[in-house]
Amino acid sequence: MMHLLNRWGRCGGRYLAACLLATLALAGAAAAGPAEAPPPGMTMVTFNLHHDREDWPARREVILRELKALRPDAIALQEVIQKPKVRNQAQWLARKLGYDYQFVSTDPPGASKRYGNALLTARPVLARNDHLLAPLTDYRTVAHLRIAVDGQPVNVYATHLNERSDDSGSRIRGEQVADLLAFIAATSDDAPVVIAGDFNALVDAGDLSALRNHYGDSYGSVHVNDLAAVSTLNRHYYQAPSRIDHIFFQQDRLIAREARLLFDQPYAEGRWASDHYGVWTRLQFAPPSAAPAATAP
Question: What is the predicted pLDDT for the residue at 228?
Fold first, then answer.
């Protein structure tokens, strides 16, 4: 600090104020030290696009603007459609964002209309897979990308489960969760796992219990005391709050640090980005567990 005061003392009269401000700025910078790098991790978004209903050309610009501002590492999309006069929605967003993408549908390539799920990423892709979930009569899928996040591989999965609210729907979702977990076990290659999508079930529903036995709920982990009235179904379209869109994470490898809703305000009077809200979360890599202490012979 003394050398800074000496420098101030050499300033001429009319430059005194400017020198004082510069000296104080340098002193503040010296006291603060180098800026700390954010802890390593990733951000992810999940969002049900509501396919091309209502005014898709206007909605897509709103969605694109928000995603450009956030620049998440990965984006899971549901209700993605392509058909005559509607370019594949995931492809359009990926191209505008400069992201890679993976689209999966039960409709065969070349069909005039295809409907399914997608993953978008700004990170290098190490592996990609897709899978048609059992039972095949329900037309549900999962997309998978293994991406490199600051040199560490992370598996991200996007899915959309059965929407029925009766006992049959619950049974089908349970079957889909079991198949999803088997697919993850076969493709994750011992890298951390994040699973995002529209699960059509509350996080504590019995349908998802097998999933919750292995993975944590990112939004619920961050907002543990403030969940009663939270909904990811857009309250403009649905009366009762229902949080059915989730980002699950592998709790022994990742930590949920932040989470919030997206697209939960109209972009114009009576106009919304979707009939769902999106979910954004920031995950941090968990520190490696300490090695067990050596025991005396």
Answer: 86
